[in-house]
Design goal:
Structural class: alpha/beta
Order of helices and strands: EEHEEHHEHEHEHHHHHH
CATH topology of one domain: Rossmann fold
CATH class of one domain: Alpha Beta
Number of strands: 7
Strand content: 15-25%
Largest sheet: 7 strands, mixed
Distance between the termini: 53 Å
Radius of gyration: 25 Å
Shape: globular
CATH architecture of one domain: 3-Layer(aba) Sandwich
Number of helices: 11
Helix content: 40-55%
Length: 330
Amino acid sequence: MVKSEEISNPRRILAVSLEDSTEQLSRVIKDLTGNDPGSASSSASLAGTTHDLHLKTTYYTATVPIWLDLITTPSEWALSFLSPEAKEVLEVLGGLIVVFAIPDPASTSATKELIREVGKVMKEGLGGWAWDGVSLGVGVGEVAHLDDLDVWDEACGDAGLEFVHVASSAAAPDAKNEFGEKMGVSRVLEAIESNDWASFSAEDDDIAGLAGEAGHEDELELDPENMDFGIDKEDFEGLRAAIWEARMERVWEDDGEGETADKSSNKAAPPGDGAAEKDEGGEELGDEDVQKVEEMMRKLLAVKDMSAGLPEDQRKRLAARAVGEVMREL
């Protein structure tokens, strides 16, 4: 007899919809989890809330968190999720679901844009059809003819999503289509259950390698509650100094001038010294480099904010990965 595995820290599901499709998103989440996400407060937004989906199959049991997000402008939403700061968030996802109200044929452009932009994140951020996760486009509403669903099946397919139609009236849990396949929310649940929800494994985790290449494997203090992920002010000064020295190397190579002693003296001067940050012509050397350090700091803090809801071990892994990538950029 197969022993059921308990997955303690499963991957996450991100479920999104347009702001005017809150009712449809709430219904799908309620039918999946048994809890109405809008019941806590009629005025509260669903965006940023988390709802647990309890899964139990022959092979595993898991409680998968579903993150909800409401989209105002699909293009801006996609841009934010494809930014470097969102990379670690995408890496913990095991499911992406876009819920939309099936619109009147005369007003389909906004819904198609939503599906297209979610598909952009699916393809460029998650890897498209090669991604080892579940990706669904769930259309809620009635249609005059089943053929009217073809346009949404095609739109979702182009975006790398499986289209699932959920009728306005609740269907029987065992309802199947002409091909013997489950329909509606039952199909959504079936697709989710068939996915692999196991999170990071020691074999696949390359964090130690990243930290080792950066030369800080023994120095990183990966406290998930530490805003700087183990990097304090002195470490950032070191980052800034390293970048500044690299910049000075390029300046001297380009100019081909100066004595070795002068070059060494200039390189040794710490960033922040007004005289040291200028070349012989008095040109400022530090603006671009300081900006680069600040961007690195913002990336680390963004990772900290976005990983706040994750278990401690995953937060440590994401912290180490972010630190490793920053150090490799020097």
